[in-house]
Amino acid sequence: MAIFVTGGAGFIGSNFVLDWLAQSDEPVVNLDALTYAGNPENLASLEGDGRHVFVKGDIGDFDLVIDLLARHRPRALVHFAAESHVDRSIHGPEDFIQTNIVGSFRLLEAARAYWGGLTAGDREGFRFLQVSTDEVYGTLAADAPAFSETSRYEPNSPYSASKAASDHLVRAYRHTYGLPVLTTNCSNNYGPYQFPEKLIPLCMHHALAGQSLPLYGDGLHIRDWLYVGDHCSAIRRVLEAGTVGEVYNIGGWSEKTNREVVTTLCSILDELCPRNDGRAYAEQIVLVRDRPGHDRRYAIDASRIERELSWRPAETFATGLRRTVHWYLEHRQWLRNVTSGAYRHWLAQQYGGCACGCS
Ligand code: NAD
Ligand code: TYD
User: Fold this and answer.
1) Strand, helix or coil at 55?
2) Which of 246, 254, 240, 241 is nearest to 314 (CA)?
3) How far is the first Cα of the chain from the last one, in angstroms, to the nearest whole number?
4) DSSP states of 282-314 as a string?
5) DSSP character for 163?
6) What is d(CA 353, CA 204) in angstroms, rounded to the nearest whole number?
7) What is the Å distance from ligand 1's center to 28 Cα?
8) Hey, whose CA ends up nearest to atom 12 of ligand 2?
9) pLDDT, tens only, 278-322
10) Which of 47, 161, 184, 233 has the fewest CB atoms within 10 Å, counting from its CB?
11) Distance CA 63, CA 44 (A)
């Protein structure tokens, strides 16, 4: 038996593959196109490990995927691969449509063809798990209840719209063809190996480099944060015990304003790696131009997965963020490697004219 993972060289995918192989001997076939966000260094500890088969390729390459499925005969496919950064989707939505919608469609087609050729028993046991986001539900008013599995899809960015489209395709493949699918919609993740374009690793990187910590708008937008290891354990649990065709929301009951997130990060850094001049990292925070169409608040009601599958996050925001800061401090070379080259162009494009001091 084996599982097939897409996007396993990215942030969540690589954490998932590493956690999976730390807990099981079941091999993982890992298909990743190695875009700017995919990093083989995340998987360096698996070098020479026969349980991990890495293939560089595109989820939209039907012939490649069908060939890999036929050769490795996985019992499940966990679909992480995506373009995942909202700001990039605002600058250039095309890649998001191509990978998240067209790529996911071709992947579903390959999965359907493979699944259709299995024996009746294997067909029943097969699972296609779609890893999705809470952003498909749109934005919440300050006093609105958290998103549940029945909240209406109201995506507001090209990123969330493209994820919503792929979620709908996954649902349609269940209803039309009977493909045994599961969907998870998770809140904002943080932890090791996150590319420093997202809020927490970007501020970590800028803080250490003595640069400004840019908060969009008034800095009071709210996200619901979950440690990546907890997301991975939830996905494993849904794969193991989730009901086919169902959706599970995953979150950490941990709503924070962006300002709270960054000031907490700064205080941990003040303690673990004080600035040479003795001043507080929080002095580096600056308010910058807001993101167009910026969703004000996300919050996940995770009671279904807790009640039905007995899943609970192991980390609180305080413990998870401390672990994360430790990890980045201990992996300065990883951070240096991913912040050279093309990364600088992104910073200049996104923050170039602003006060964040990175251009
Ligand atoms: P990421 O951007 O760090 O990684 C994406 C990975 O997919 C990269 O390794 C990249 O090379 C690969 N990829 C991109 N296009 C590809 C293609 N066409 N073919 C094959 N591989 C391709 O993303 P992430 O933060 O790890 O997110 C993983 C998944 O989880 C995404 O589907 C995302 O929507 C979802 N998600 C993310 C979060 C979050 O907070 N990061 C929260 C909820 C859900
Ligand atoms: P991000 O990490 O990009 O995740 P998402 O947009 O998917 O939620 O952003 C998290 C929050 O932080 C979001 O409200 C936007 C905000 N943000 C900033 O204030 N400054 C930044 O430099 C970045 C990257 C994000």
Assistant:
1) strand
2) 254
3) 49
4) GGGEEEEPPPTT---B--B--HHHHHHH----S
5) H
6) 21
7) 17
8) 199
9) 999 999 999 999 999 999 999 999 999 999 999 999 999 999 999
10) 47
11) 28
